[in-house]
Specification:
- It is built from two helices and two strands; from the N terminus they run ββαα.
- It has 167 residues and is mainly alpha-helical.
- The termini are far apart.
- 1% of the residues are buried.
- The model is unreliable at 1-21 (pLDDT under 50).
């Protein structure tokens, strides 16, 4: 069947539409209804695109915030490394200072001690103490040697008795 012509003339531009009265014979609906449905679809698509653009902008904003947070965390990590090195240096300095104070206190006690006879006497006392420790170690070693020899002798005597009894 040949298509019938529409009694409607529609001029549609990108931003406006104009419809005259009549029927669109393609679907049997009044031409004005078809135009309104097309406009509604067009408006819905525009609203959807606008919502998607807004969501995209929101996602981009969140990405920028997250990039800023990551950048801040990187700077914080670098700053913590600097703080750590500073604390290690301060700790080393404090250890040195504690040693200095300890030596100073020791020296002060020596100088205020009326029985202290000077560094020369300290060297003599240290040598005497070293000799005493060496002699104690030698006595201990000699005593240990005597015990080993006594155990060895006792073992040999037991073996001799056992051999004599077996014969």
């Amino acid at each position: 069947m040949p298509e019938a012509e529409s009694h409607t003339s529609t001029v549609r531009g990108p931003e406006s539409s104009h419809t005259t009265t009549g029927y669109d014979l393609a679907d049997g609906q009044p031409a004005a209804v078809n135009v309104r449905q097309g406009e509604a679809r067009f408006d819905a698509e525009e609203e959807r695109e606008a919502a998607l653009r807004a969501e995209l902008q929101g996602v981009r904003s969140i990405n920028q915030v997250l990039e800023g947070v990551l950048s801040s965390l990187d700077r914080a990590k670098e700053n913590m490394a600097v703080v750590s090195r500073t604390v290690q240096s301060a700790s080393a300095l404090l250890d040195t200072w504690i040693q200095v104070l300890s030596q100073t206190e020791h020296n002060q006690r020596l100088m205020l001690n009326p029985s202290w006879q000077g560094a020369s006497q300290d060297v003599v006392d240290i040598e005497k103490e070293t000799k005493f420790r060496q002699q104690a170690a030698q006595r201990k070693e000699m005593e240990e040697q005597r015990r080993r020899e006594a155990r060895k002798l006792a073992t040999e005597q037991r073996q001799s008795r056992n051999e004599a009894l077996e014969v």
